[in-house]
Amino acid sequence: MFKAANIKFSEMKNKDILDNKGQKIGRVIDFHFLYEGGKVNLKSIVMGGGRIEEFLESVGLRADIDPFFPLEVIDRFENNQLHLKVEYEKLTKPVELGPNEMRLSTLSKRKIIDLDNNNIGNIIDVVFDEKGSPWFVVGGGFFEEFSERIGIRPDIDLLVPQTYVTNITEEAINIKYSKMQLSTTAEADWEAHKRELTKEPVQVGSSHQFLWLSEPPARRY
């Protein structure tokens, strides 16, 4: 099964989707996630454009419904194209959103709430590491102010692991740490990151473009 590894959503968005005959059938417009057991997992890819209207008509869906294609029918993401294992005509009916399922475009509209109930920003992108685990690119409010204060370069994304998340509701994404814990951890991680940057040149697409936040130390009251 296709594994999203070393992939950033914004770099895949709007890229062409090809069937196993190499025919363009649409483009990537969103990710479809399942939140279960305290983990956020990629479940399918949302397709738009191309021959989408023809496809929707063939499976009896309304024109305002975007089809979700499960990872099982995906072969690979290569040369900025998403390749499927099946022919366009043999695609099964797209899956629909179920309980605890959401699109990234929806998830990004929910505010991130820290341990002290502060609104500290929102998710603006998602990156999958080499193991296929999602990390959330965060921005807005606290994160932008903090990044500017300690001098994190604007071309470096601040990544939060899914282990920070304690709950996802229709209104918010709750994390288990406070702003102070995040500040302390991010500052230490940034200093370590800068030391790594001096050892070797940064390559486009390398992990040096990201600041991977570690787990903060226990809170002191």
Give a structural overview.
The protein is α+β, with helices and mostly antiparallel strands. It has two domains: 7-105, SH3 type barrels (Roll), CATH 2.30.30; 108-212, SH3 type barrels. The chain is built from five helices and 15 strands. The chain has helices at 9-12, 52-59, 104-107, 141-150, 179-197, and strands at residues 7-8, 16-18, 24-36, 39-48, 68-70, 74-78, 81-84, 101-103, 111-113, 119-128, 134-139, 157-161, 165-168, 172-175, 210-212. The strands form two sheets. Strands 1, 9, 10, 11, 12, 13, 14 and 15 form an eight-stranded mixed sheet that branches. The longest helix has 19 residues, at 179-197. It is globular. The relative contact order is 0.14.
Secondary structure topology:
Elements: E1 7-8, H1 9-12, E2 16-18, E3 24-36, E4 39-48, H2 52-59, E5 68-70, E6 74-78, E7 81-84, E8 101-103, H3 104-107, E9 111-113, E10 119-128, E11 134-139, H4 141-150, E12 157-161, E13 165-168, E14 172-175, H5 179-197, E15 210-212
Parallel strand pairs: 2-7, 9-14, 12-15
Antiparallel strand pairs: 1-10, 2-3, 3-4, 3-8, 4-5, 6-7, 9-10, 10-11, 11-12, 13-14
List the quaternary state of the chains.
single chain
Order of helices and strands: EHEEEHEEEEHEEEHEEEHE
End-to-end separation: 46 Å
User: How many β-strands, per DSSP?
Assistant: 15
Total count of domains: 2
> Which residue ranges are poorly predicted, with pLDDT under 50 across at least 5 consecutive positions?
201-208
And the CATH topology of the largest domain?
Answer: SH3 type barrels
Structural class: alpha+beta
Described by the principal axes of the CA atoms, the overall outline is globular
Proportion in helices: 10-25%
Q: Name the beta content range.
A: 35-45%
- For the record, the CATH architecture of the largest domain stands as Roll
Q: Please, what is the CATH homologous superfamily of the largest domain?
A: PRC-barrel domain
Radius of gyration: 19 Å
